[in-house]
């Protein structure tokens, strides 16, 4: 057991024994305070009831049964009818609230992990590599830990994507996303960057590079040097690995920065998170941008980082506008207040399975969504 007071610990009892272990939650959830032991005898109804009341179930039974139990709990959650919201904004807020509640309830099924990330349960899969990629190499001190099954499944899914990669048509190659790094699964915005007329081929900045995908696209288009920044350690490591895999290390330099690197460039590209809302966990930071902080930071700093005649490419979807989270006028006002003018705009409609699913709670906003590349210049 760890003695580091900053490491969260989960406590439970087994008969007369008071036990504890390191608690792992990449979502930043606190260790559950009420924990009971559970095994194959537990019914889905009982599990659902306990979990809804905030009682965590530390699994001792067969691993595959724990998976099935959680699926049965999910069905119980998803059966619940929700009131029709009055506006798209109400729908968005209700949807996020329901998602958070769902995550809390399903997050109550807990799995023990040994120090080397093996799972000491019957029929358990080997998750060692997936865990090591996210938590770091196993603890030499022999500390065991506890994690929610839901998080563990997220880690395993991320590991598969990282291994397999995502085909990027504009690159004719694959990009391998890391856990917690914005994944370029929706390719339309990449298409916009692949087809916009380049103002120069000498130098570009890619602000908030994530997997490094846009820097790589610019490199493939012949931009001689690209400085790609990010503020997140996982994104930096991920971008570096992708750049190396694509053999672009001569052209693309990945560096840690809060938005811009020093200096000016004739082209500065940025794809900030599209929704001005509070992330509910650290791994949602690439999707939600509270108070449009990154968007504003990019716009406000752009003119000072553009060479004369240079262009800033802002990639942004209008999903937030359809949800009532930000108006077009407010975006125009931000561009204006930053001393920028719009040189041009290229729009694309997302091809998103949910955009064609009327049962999705955000269907109307999704179906109307347009992603744009705004070409901005200093006034
Ligand atoms: C929506 S993702 C876009 C990633 C990538 N450019 C792409 O298009 O797939 C936004 C990225 O910006 C990064 N980011 C957020 N705030 C930042 C800041 N202040 N400085 C640098 N990067 C930041 C996030 O870590 C994330 O990787």
TrEMBL record:
Molecular function terms from GO:
protein-glutamine N-methyltransferase activity
Q: Which residues form a coiled coil?
A: none
| Any single biological process term in GO | methylation
User: Start and end of every Methyltransferase small domain?
Assistant: 204-318
- List the InterPro entries: N5-glutamine_MTase, SAM-dependent_MTases_sf, Small_mtfrase_dom
Quote the CDD domains the UniProt record gives: AdoMet_MTases
- Keyword Methyltransferase part of the UniProt annotation: yes
Q: Name one Pfam family in it.
A: MTS
Which of UniProt's keywords are assigned here?
A: Methyltransferase, S-adenosyl-L-methionine, Transferase
Asked whether the keyword Lipid biosynthesis is assigned, the reply is: no
Q: Which Gene3D superfamilies match?
A: Vaccinia Virus protein VP39 (3.40.50.150)
* Annotated signal sequence range: none
Q: Which PANTHER family match?
A: HEMK METHYLTRANSFERASE, MTRF1L RELEASE FACTOR GLUTAMINE METHYLTRANSFERASE
Output this protein's name. Class I SAM-dependent methyltransferase
Taxon lineage: Bacteria, Pseudomonadati, Pseudomonadota, Betaproteobacteria, Burkholderiales
